[in-house]
Amino acid sequence: MSQGASQPHVIVEGAGTLFAIEQGAVREVVPARALTRLPGASAAVRGLLNVRGTLVTVVDLATRFARGTSAGEELSVVIVVTQSRTLGLLVNDVIDVQAYSADDFVPTGLEPPDPALRGMGHFDGRIVLSVDLQELARQTFA
């Protein structure tokens, strides 16, 4: 592990791609049930999920970052809260919790760069993409 303050991140998988999301923003993980599609929404927005009376916009992380589509019978939605905005992240699986510092991530090299990605690092010999939840929420609700 490198220098700097480490923060725990939840490692999730969507369509075979690993993503790291700040654990402090995670409120809960719920099974993906019937989503209500939003007309006119981007392909990454899979719909609305009713979580105990609160409607949560659900984004497929894999689709949002052009890594495929999360599919299967046992999908999960990671509910995150960032700056008073609640967002659901559709994933295939929740893998682990891992501590990372900002130094553990290097630029993705994507052109043009995606501001919703902080960088890429490693987890268990695989590439993991660090998601900027605040930027993802800002873009989703823009």
Q: Which band does the percent of strand residues land in?
A: over 45%
Global morphology? globular
Strand order of the largest sheet: 8-1-2-10-9
Kindly state the number of beta strands. 10
Number of helices: 2
Structural topology:
Layout: E1 7-14, E2 17-22, E3 26-31, E4 45-51, E5 54-60, H1 61-64, E6 76-82, E7 85-91, E8 93-100, E9 117-123, E10 126-131, H2 133-141
Description:
The chain has 142 residues and is mostly beta strands. The chain has 2 helices and 10 strands. The protein is globular.
Short description:
The protein has helices spanning 61-64, 133-141; strands spanning 7-14, 17-22, 26-31, 45-51, 54-60, 76-82, 85-91, 93-100, 117-123, 126-131.
Features:
142 residues; mainly beta; five-stranded mixed beta sheet; 2 helices; 10 strands; 9% helix
